[in-house]
Amino acid sequence: MAKERIYELAKELKMPSKALVKLANENGVAVKSHMSSVTPEQAAKLRSLSGNQQSASTANGKVVSQPKPKEQPKHEQQANDHHKHHDTKAEKQHPNKPQPKSASVKAKKEKANQPNHNETKKKNKDKGGNRFNNKNGKKNKKGKRNRQNQRMKNLQPKQPTQRKDKPLPDVLEYTDGMNAQDLAKILHRPAAEIVKKLFMLGVMVNQNQSLEKDTIEILAADYGIEAKEKVQEDITDLDRFFDVDNEDESHLVSRPPVVTVMGHVDHGKTTLLDNIRHSHITAQEAGGITQAIGAYQVKYNDQVITFLDTPGHAAFSEMRARGANITDITVLVVAADDGVMPQTIEAINHAKAAKTPIIVAVNKVDKPGANPDHVTEQLTEYGLIPEDWGGDTIFVKISAKFGKNIDELLDMILLQAEVMELKANPNRRAVGSVVEARLDQGRGPVATLLVQQGTLHVGDPIVVGNTFGRVRTMTNENGRRIKEATPSTPVEITGLNAVPEAGDRFAVFEDEKTARAAGEERAKRAQEEERARTSHVTLDNLFATMKKGQMKSLPVIIKADVQGSVEALAQSLQKIKVDGVRVDIIHKAVGAINESDVTLAEASNAVIIGFNVRPTPNAKNEAETNRIDIRLHRVIYKAIEEVEDAMKGMLEPVYEEETIGQVEVRQIYKASKIGTIAGGMVTSGKITRNAKVRLVRDGVVIYDGELGSLKRFKDDVKEVKAGYECGLTIQNYNDIKEMDVIEAYQMKEIPVK
Ligand SMILES: Nc1nc2c(ncn2[C@@H]2O[C@H](COP(=O)(O)OP(=O)(O)OP(=O)(O)O)[C@@H](O)[C@H]2O)c(=O)[nH]1
């Protein structure tokens, strides 16, 4: 006769599988779990034993739960499928019939005949869920079995109905922690039926108790359908809120452009921003107290423009490195009396890397030495060609100091914005980026946020970078309290638990609880990441990165001592041909490697190549902290070779010499067949058979080579330690003399950075 499984037998005996497993083991029937099988004889034994045991196992009043079904092998699970229709009665149960909320026996009993809402509520309070008995635990076993029978009856429909359940879904899509009620909805089955099925499978729960993954999977198998865990939305992922691809076009409306002003030192950025700000303040804001919140808006021709007050190019790219790409348009200020300078080029490359269009403001045209045409000419070299020269870059000649042509510049900004069709949906929960943030003694963490989508309101639960809170107050750049902020509006907020960082992204959440959970989790992860900081692309890990398919081009920054070298290096690097990757020079300039180069490298995941130049101390520190690969060379072809080898995955590991010991030669023997044998004493460290050796005479290295043999007395040995004598020969070298020192060393591979 076929074997029977414990859980089937338990079902038949109307007792929990766990209790039966225990009973079996106590009575010499060795079984592991509810999936174990027993012989017909053993089954008979258990049947006869079960009566006594049921009362014993339930008398302690404890929740009887089944061991995790994890151990259940797959094939057994499948073998189980043929039982999936065993509950036909229950399946026919009316789907709309109100179900008891609690699985307690008492509750069920009270409820058995006429469920009504008041009663259900009352029973919700009864937490006696999965007990076989509760307060009545000490009563006799017959009573208990009756109650169990009663319970099973209660789970079955009072009057069989003709109405059929909706068909089961093909796949049970679940999330970990769902309860019977949740599953009931998905399976189109009454929750009570699910509780019953679980009971039969040895899992005692009420409808509200959350279920483990394995339990849900077994349940699905029991219904004969596949179970699939739904990928849960990662609440800590703020980027998903920025995904505007799914945004319904009809919700989008025009938004003001966000403009960053960049340029070389003293070319007039601040003067320009001040001029624009003061000459275009809106009437209602006049008289407000100007606040430095890192950004402001002006109204011009009834249109609004947002200006960011970014302090320098490094900050611009640093924000980008943190994920904030908030600038729509870059205004490049170039002084007409000074022309294109190193930081002008830097600014161009930062803007290009961020893919923002550039409007050139040729400043200081009022000055006697001004030569705007020369500036234009210089800029053509960087791909900035004015329209009347056949290009598409907008050039405006201005005087920031005297307010000349500022309106024209604003017109051009609006024109560029119009072409870009900048849009956002104001009717959604706000998302955006941090422009700047600080700790205010009185107000706590204060952050200037730029709203990029949606509308931000006072009171919104919010996650900002790795911080969270509720928007307590919101102030604009004129110090006025505002209640809401629409797309492209910068606002200063308070109410966060900590200070976020410039460039962090923010998103408004539906409730404060989720915001807090997301914020805390993000902070935790950031901390973990900081600990196990993954390095940027380096020439050493380039090949591995390429193989992982993460890299199609190798961004490179070139710094060299003279322009000729910059160009030579750039051209040669671009000629390197390796399947699937190419060199992309994102910035090249003459001069030392500075902090701006390092931040640009960080934001663009680039490698810096220095030719005859060194990094400044600050740049060096920053590169070390952020693990930016800086390669310094003095020979061009070596630099090219290195990059090429890295791209082909052939970069030689770097070795360093490590001295392991010294031998003082005390005696010399000559053997016609072997050559010169040196007898000596190991004076420090050790000498090993495979070591490289250097022969030093009077402080001068006479010969560098390898050991030929190493012996102690007559035996070949692998190593001899300090304080011992040894005999040795040097490969292909015989001119060893007494008092020579033989230095043993090995080449140690330096771990890849
Ligand atoms: N004649 C003249 N002087 C100007 C003009 N714009 C700015 N300046 C002067 O140039 C100097 C530098 O101007 P800033 O606005 O401070 O330059 P910046 O680019 O902000 O300089 P940093 O903040 O140091 O990078 C100041 O003395 C200004 O008064 C202009 O259009 N004409």
UniProtKB/TrEMBL annotation:
Composition-biased stretches (Basic residues): 136-150
Molecular-function GO terms, alphabetical: translation initiation factor activity
Pfam family, one: GTP_EFTU_D2
Compartment(s) of residence: Cytoplasm
Segments for region (Disordered): 31-170
Chain spans, region G-domain: 257-405
Domain of life of the native organism: Bacteria
UniProt name for this protein: Translation initiation factor IF-2
Tr-type G domain sequence ranges: 254-423
Residues annotated to bind GTP: 263-270, 309-313, 363-366
Role: One of the essential components for the initiation of protein synthesis. Protects formylmethionyl-tRNA from spontaneous hydrolysis and promotes its binding to the 30S ribosomal subunits. Also involved in the hydrolysis of GTP during the formation of the 70S ribosomal complex.
Species of origin: Limosilactobacillus alvi
Family to which this protein belongs: Belongs to the TRAFAC class translation factor GTPase superfamily. Classic translation factor GTPase family. IF-2 subfamily.
Biased composition (Polar residues): 49-60
InterPro entries, A to Z: EF-G-like_DII (IPR053905), EFTu-like_2 (IPR004161), IF2_II (IPR044145), IF2_N (IPR006847), P-loop_NTPase (IPR027417), Small_GTP-bd (IPR005225), T_Tr_GTP-bd_dom (IPR000795), TF_IF2_bacterial-like (IPR000178)
Residue ranges, compositional bias (Basic and acidic residues): 68-81, 118-129
Keywords assigned: Cytoplasm, GTP-binding, Initiation factor, Nucleotide-binding, Protein biosynthesis
